[in-house]
Amino acid sequence: MYNTAKKQVWFGELRTSKGNTIVVHDNQLPEASPGRIYLYNTIRNTIVEYVEDIVKVNLYDLDDEQTKVAITELNEAWKAERAEFMLKHQSRIDLSKVPDTAPSRKAKPVPEPDEIVDTDDDIPELDDDDDDDSFDEMGDSVDD
Fold first, then answer.
1. 10-33 pLDDT, tens per residue?
2. Rounded to whole angstroms, how far apart are CA atoms 123 and 35?
3. CA of 92: how far to CAs of 33, 127, 136, in Å?
4. What global pTM score does this model have?
5. Which partner for 37 in 19, 41, 52, 102 could form a disulfide, CB atoms 3.0-4.6 Å apart?
6. Taking the chain, what is the end-to-end CA distance rounded to the nearest angstrom?
7. What is the dihedral sign for C-alpha 97, 101, 102, 107?
8. How confident is the model over 58-84, as pLDDT tens digits?
9. Exposed (0-12), middle (13-18) or buried (19+): which is 44, by Cβ within 10 Å?
C-alpha cells in the first residue's frame, strides 16, 4: 500500500478499471488542495491532482525490480515534468515564510520656509474709540 513517509520520491502503481499505470509521488512538490494529492502519471506524462481518499486505496508499491526499471526508464521524463510543474506553481509558496523585502519608505522632503516678511505695516489699525454715538449699546443704528 502507498506510504510516502519513508521515501522522498515514491514510485508506485495506480490500479484502476481502465488499466494500471506507474505513478510518482514527491514530498517536495507544493501542497495540493486539502484532501488532494499530486502524482506524476507516466501515461499522461503530467502531474495530476487526485482526490486522496479515492486514489490512495488504488495505489500499490512496486517491488524492488519494478522500482529499478521505473527509475531507469521514467526518471528523465519525471524530472523534466517536475521542473516545469515547480515553475508554474511557484506562486503557491507560503508567503508567510518569505522575508519582507519591500523597499523602505522615503520620507517626504520638508519644504523650507520662505523668507519671513514683516507684514504688520500693510494692515491698517482699527480705531477702538467709543466716540461713535450713532449706535446704541445693542449695535442698532440710532437714526432708525
1. 888 999 888 899 999 888 888 888
2. 80
3. 11, 77, 83
4. 0.58
5. 52
6. 110
7. positive
8. 999 888 899 888 888 888 898 889 888
9. exposed
